[in-house]
């Protein structure tokens, strides 16, 4: 992949909806990836001519569309996704009429990257048009049409303004007195169930809706053996990557989530999954993890950490390279023929 893989970034369109994206906060990977591939010619994966390309990127930002197009928002109908869908379909029509690449593959070598909750909706209005198209999504919910063999699941990463990650607060396994930790709002049914059962009720399983004054979130993750990662309104949560950064074993609590980079990462080796209906048993389940098993999970979290780190420019095995590798694997799944 490093020597051969090339991506053509379509030049059509203008900022802020195209060739731009958020580079901070929870949708940051959307803008960071677009910027890495689109700005200048520093990326070795960027094709200098479309005939060199294995894949074609629509540098379209769903987050920017929601920010600039969906105004004003006075009623429920103002949140209808049809405006987003028309914009993306119009962009496809422009490049399909101008170049041969979309039509020859029916979009199978084209992709869009979105970390916004609405990312999956780009294809809902016209499923036939997007039948082979690759959606690179944080919101990788298999119950809402995410197809793991075709689409790409990427992690949601919260980036503070001007930084590529939080401070490293990771502690040695022997210096982690908290069994399990979570702090976050009651977004979605799963978090509500977690908070109802565990909120501020146990010193070993520390679950908070709001942290007590004077406590630091990143420090507490670094002092915890396990970090609870329940879904919010959507399946993806930055809690997973925050846990990995702090070398805290992620405990995935969700339904229908296709975990990022599952083509090459065995999540059972560095995380745990607890079914939603077993939320009351969290303490018992985690207490029953042997010391040897916990240390195995902990050291595996340390090993995979580099795959979730954002570098600019990107570096081998980091998060941006992992996204490109996932795309490369899907590109290998089909072959253009002479008739195409």
Q: Could you characterize what this model shows?
A:
With 340 residues, the protein is an alpha/beta fold. Helices cover 29% and strands 12% of the residues. The chain contains 10 helices and 10 strands. The strands form 2 sheets. The chain has a 5-stranded parallel beta sheet with strand order 1-2-3-4-5. Helix 7 (239-245) links the parallel strand 8 (224-230) and strand 9. The model has no long low-confidence stretch (mean pLDDT 95).
Notable features of this structure?
29% helix; five-stranded parallel beta sheet; 10 helices; 340 residues; alpha/beta
Short description:
The chain is built from ten helices and ten strands. With 340 residues, it is an alpha/beta fold.
Topology of helices and strands:
Blueprint: E1 7-9, H1 28-38, E2 55-57, H2 62-68, H3 82-98, H4 101-105, E3 110-114, E4 134-137, E5 152-153, E6 178-183, H5 188-198, E7 205-208, H6 217-222, E8 224-230, H7 239-245, E9 249-253, E10 272-273, H8 282-287, H9 291-304, H10 319-331
Parallel strand pairs: 1-2, 2-3, 3-4, 4-5, 6-7, 6-8, 8-9, 9-10
Number of helices: 10
How far apart the termini lie comes to 24 Å
Rg over CA atoms:
21 Å
Class by alpha and beta content: alpha/beta
Average predicted confidence as pLDDT: 95
DSSP strand count: 10
Shape: globular
Oligomer: single chain
The parts where pLDDT drops under 50 for at least 5 residues are: none
Major sheet: 5 strands, parallel
Q: Helix content range of the residues, please? A: 25-40%
Please write the string of helix (H) and strand (E) elements: EHEHHHEEEEHEHEHEEHHH
β content, as a range? Answer: 5-15%
Strand order of the largest sheet: 1-2-3-4-5
